[in-house]
């Protein structure tokens, strides 16, 4: 089944309601300028021209809704962006976004991952339509160890089975909603949406992404983000 033939529409929920504690800047990291625009605007642009994206929901801090509405007017997109307030944790922000859309498919993406390419988003979406749920990821490059509270190694998982998970993550709307509501009822807080969907027994397909789809998290990521941006502008290849 091809995406063209089933004409399945998708919404993207871009979560940008975090405080950026690890970045430590006065301004929240999603609003810092990357070249000519705030980081989250670059992120919205990555989704804007894709034919299967019918809705864009931007989830921001409650106090930031007005200025985000101004920004999306100042940097016009093809889509009308619905700007809504988020919650205390990322998971709550995603759920609030979910209540604002009823497209058959939903992609969830971090507002601070501005370098995702249209090809990667499309690959993730198409895999979800084919398989039911899909996430972007890259194989880990380092050896990863489990370490206990006293800083002793307890195990070394086989690296060949370890992937670093990114966004977007794409799901059927009904599955993601069910997964979130079950997690909420059980007081479960996950670090990504796939964890919640895994808990309701939906198999999640991993699609290989790119190492340049970074999540801007700590100060050194800002220099790397400038570097990636420059490479992309010059049309240079990135892994
Ligand atoms: N309550 C929250 C927390 C996070 N996010 C968003 O989820 C994405 C990934 O989260 P992370 O990188 O952890 O961002 P922060 O929570 O802002 O960072 P920190 O954990 O360092 O405070 C970000 O785009 C962030 O804005 C959100 O929408 N709502
Ligand atoms: C969803 C995510 O980006 C996948 O890597 C990540 O888990 C978000 O974690 P954070 O602690 O909210 O940055």
From TrEMBL:
Pathway: Isoprenoid biosynthesis; isopentenyl diphosphate biosynthesis via DXP pathway; isopentenyl diphosphate from 1-deoxy-D-xylulose 5-phosphate: step 2/6. PROSITE patterns: ISPD. Keywords: Isoprene biosynthesis, Nucleotidyltransferase, Transferase. The record marks 22, 29 as: Transition state stabilizer. The record marks 159, 215 as: Positions MEP for the nucleophilic attack. It catalyses: 2-C-methyl-D-erythritol 4-phosphate + CTP + H(+) = 4-CDP-2-C-methyl-D-erythritol + diphosphate. SUPFAM superfamilies: Nucleotide-diphospho-sugar transferases (SSF53448). One of its GO terms (molecular function) is 2-C-methyl-D-erythritol 4-phosphate cytidylyltransferase activity. One of its GO terms (biological process) is isopentenyl diphosphate biosynthetic process, methylerythritol 4-phosphate pathway. It comes from the Bacteria. InterPro entries: IspD, IspD/TarI, IspD/TarI_cytidylyltransf_bact, ISPD_synthase_CS, Nucleotide-diphossugar_trans. The keyword Transferase applies. PANTHER family: 2-C-METHYL-D-ERYTHRITOL 4-PHOSPHATE CYTIDYLYLTRANSFERASE, CHLOROPLASTIC. Catalyzes the formation of 4-diphosphocytidyl-2-C-methyl-D-erythritol from CTP and 2-C-methyl-D-erythritol 4-phosphate (MEP). This is 2-C-methyl-D-erythritol 4-phosphate cytidylyltransferase. The gene is ispD.
